[in-house]
Amino acid sequence: MSNEAMINGAVASGQNYDAENITVLEGLEAVRKRPGMYIGTTSERGLHHLVWEIVDNSVDEALAGYCDEILVKILPDNIIEVIDNGRGIPVHLHPKYGKSALEIVMTVLHAGGKFENNNYKVSGGLHGVGISVVNALSLWVEVIVERDGGLWYQKYNRGNPEADVKQIGVSDKHGTTVRFKADALIFETLVFDYNIMKSRLKELAYLNKGLKITLEDLRKEPAKRESFSFEGGIVDFVREIVSDKKSEELIVQDPIFMSGEADGVSVEATLTYTADQAETIYSFVNNINTHEGGTHVSGFRTALTRAINDVGKAQGLIKEKDLKDGNLQGNDIREGLVAVVSVRVPQPQFEGQTKTKLGNSEVSGIVSSIVNGNLKIYLEDNPEATKKIISKIILSKKAREAAQKARDTVFRANALSIGSLPGKLADCASKIPDECEIYIVEGDSAGGSAKQGRNRYNQAILPLRGKILNVEKAGVHKALESDTIRSMITAFGTSIDDSFDIGKLRYGKIIIMTDADVDGAHIRTLLLTFFYRHMVELIQNGNVYIAQPPLYKITYGKKIYYAYNDKELSEITGSFGAKEIREEELRVTTGEDMEEEVLPEAEETAGAPEKKGYTLQRYKGLGEMNPEQLWETTMDPANRILLQVSIDNAREADMLFDKLMGDKVEPRREFIEENAEFVKNLDI
């Protein structure tokens, strides 16, 4: 069944999308007071969530069969404009509420066409809070609707309409244009990231075969413009994921596609196999990226295991001597797997508020049945491909068993257990994980300062010597030969990979604290690579943080100030009343570990200290700080800045780690060339 036929069949009764189809559940009072309840955060991620809410409405129109083009523009001053050619939001008076349906949708929480099943059979924005929340959290919003031969307009200021919806012209087109400016009183930043938007919009184009999504960035010349449309849908998606693989690294050259529908649930899945060890499954429900999987992923895995075992035995490719219990195990079958699973569910039930895990029990059986049937047909019709897949799986099984033996040997040889903590670890007194934190510190010098300056009750310190092994290139047995990696595993208490148990985590916060230079950044990247590949649940659970030590110490008179970036430095030094500093006026003296810049005297200002100049120290490493300074600036919960590490886009993270830390030089070179322009300060 084609995507269009599937959609039209699912929404055959949704032709009459008018004012009376809008259902109102409750008001909009609390959104501005508690924005985090509705969009998760007021950081950059929350800012972009506003765009997703509007785009999701347009995509829902595509799912319903009424929209095939969406244009997203980033205008100067970070204004966003989203244009679609869907039916257009209803504009006429609502028969029950006496207002334009457009105004109700824009100003009332839980108002929309998605609560009436005959309008949208499937939808990503099931809560119906989307566009009204965007309205509440924006400085202003403009909506233009083309439908029923007219052109309709309304503007809102911080959620309140300036005037009634009015007709401003005639039009023979249909669609909705939403233009908004996010509110600086709500968000920490108002700057939209082109690459974040590109990644999500491209993903939506993959998931909705034939839908064209265009992104324009008009903030500076020359303007950027990219269009995404994929007739192959998720098959093209998988092709992109493995695009950096050589032909000999692909066990299956052309991805296997499976689809079907049962009980109103439609299923699309595609898979291929590579020579890699990792399993890569990206799953979606109604276009929502379900990072934590759910019943659709369980059904897919069950079907994959069953189909390969059944066909492999029938073709004589799986022999009893290769197996202990007569079947290949799921872990072995999924090694090297790259798959995308996308389902459309009329009434999805997500576990938690983040919509990252599907809970509908009936979906597991539907997905399993459709994938099992389709995959068996493919494997039976393509015996050569089946032989390659099963040979790869048996090799993977043997390699895994050998790696397990090596791991067990290393674990036993090094007494890798909770009862034998690493010697360099300065543990904390508390044994309550939620209040404990461990600092992974670069070098013995910084480790010494951190141990002396810390709060011994709940702050543990683990110094690392040198750069850790790049686990993207090395196998797990090599990684476990590293003293540094074994020390971390032991200190955390969770073990790794299949035996990882977050319930045994000894510290609620794992804080990476490295120097603010290139070497420090490299060590951070190596640590994050290890966590992502072997302890990814630490990141998913929000346990990993990056400390932010100050870059500068400014002494002015008898006072000391710290600046964490160049902007803060300018603000602090600017408050002293100093004139602009010309480069030739700087007197630079370089010590063993630091540079000291004595800047020229400033003009006296009222209340300024007697000393007219100030001394600027650029920290080259954490070891330059004495224990009191390190505590005050970087470790004291009252003053410190911690960046929480998260995986907003697992696919991009996976590909980026592979590109930057893997064996291939060419993709890494291309990435550096493409992104060199974004490096502002390189400390070499």
Strand content: 15-25%
Gross geometry? flat
CA(first)-CA(last) distance:
57 Å
The beta-strand count equals 26
The CATH topology of the largest domain is given as: Heat Shock Protein 90
CATH A-level architecture of the largest domain = 2-Layer Sandwich
Give the helix proportion (percent range): 25-40%
Total domain count = 4
Low-confidence stretches: 1-14, 415-419, 579-611, 677-684
Instruction: Characterize the biggest β-sheet.
Output: 9 strands, mixed
By helix and strand content, what is the structural category? alpha+beta
CATH superfamily of the largest domain: Histidine kinase-like ATPase, C-terminal domain
Radius of gyration: 29 Å
**Total of helices:** 20
Mean pLDDT: 82
Instruction: Return the CATH class of the largest domain.
Output: Alpha Beta
Provide structural commentary.
- The protein has 684 residues and is an alpha+beta fold.
- It folds into four domains: 3-228, Histidine kinase-like ATPase, C-terminal domain (Heat Shock Protein 90), CATH 3.30.565.10; 234-408, 2-Layer Sandwich (Ribosomal Protein S5, domain 2), CATH 3.30.230; 433-549 and 643-651, Rossmann fold, CATH 3.40.50.670; 552-618.
- The protein has 20 helices and 26 strands.
- Strands 2, 3, 5, 6, 7, 8, 9, 10 and 11 form a nine-stranded mixed β-sheet that branches.
- It is flat and about 75 Å long.
- It starts with a helix and ends in a 9-residue tail after the last helix.
